[in-house]
Amino acid sequence: MPNIKELTDLTTQVRRDILRMVHKVNSGHPGGSLGCAEFFVSLYQELMETKDGFDMDGIGEDLFFLSNGHISPVYYSVLARSGYFPVEELNTFRIINTRLQGHPTTHEGLPGIRIASGSLGQGMSVALGAAQAKKLNNDKHIVYSLHGDGELQEGQNWEAIMYASAKKVDNLISTIDLNKQQIDGATDDVLPMGSIKAKFEAFGWIVLDIEEGNNIETVLKGMKEAKSLTGKGKPVCVLLHTIMGNGIDFMMHTHAWHGKAPNDEQLAIGLAQNPETLGDY
Amino acid sequence: MKTYTYTEKKDTRSGFGAGLAELGRTNPNVVALCADLIGSLKMNQFIDENPERFFQIGIAEANMMGIAAGLTIGGKIPFTGTFANFSTGRVYDQIRQSIAYSGKNVKICASHAGLTLGEDGATHQILEDIGLMKMLPGMVVINPCDYNQTKAATIAIADYDGPVYLRFGRPSVPIFTPADQKFEIGKAIKFTEGTDVTIVATGHLVWEALEASKALNEAGISAEVINIHTIKPLDDKAILESVAKTGCIVTAEEHNHLGGLGESVARVLAQHNPTPQEFVATNDTFGESGTPAQLMNKYGLNSDAIQKAVKKVLKRK
Question: How far, in Å, CA of A263 to CA of A267, rounded?
Answer without folding.
Answer: 6
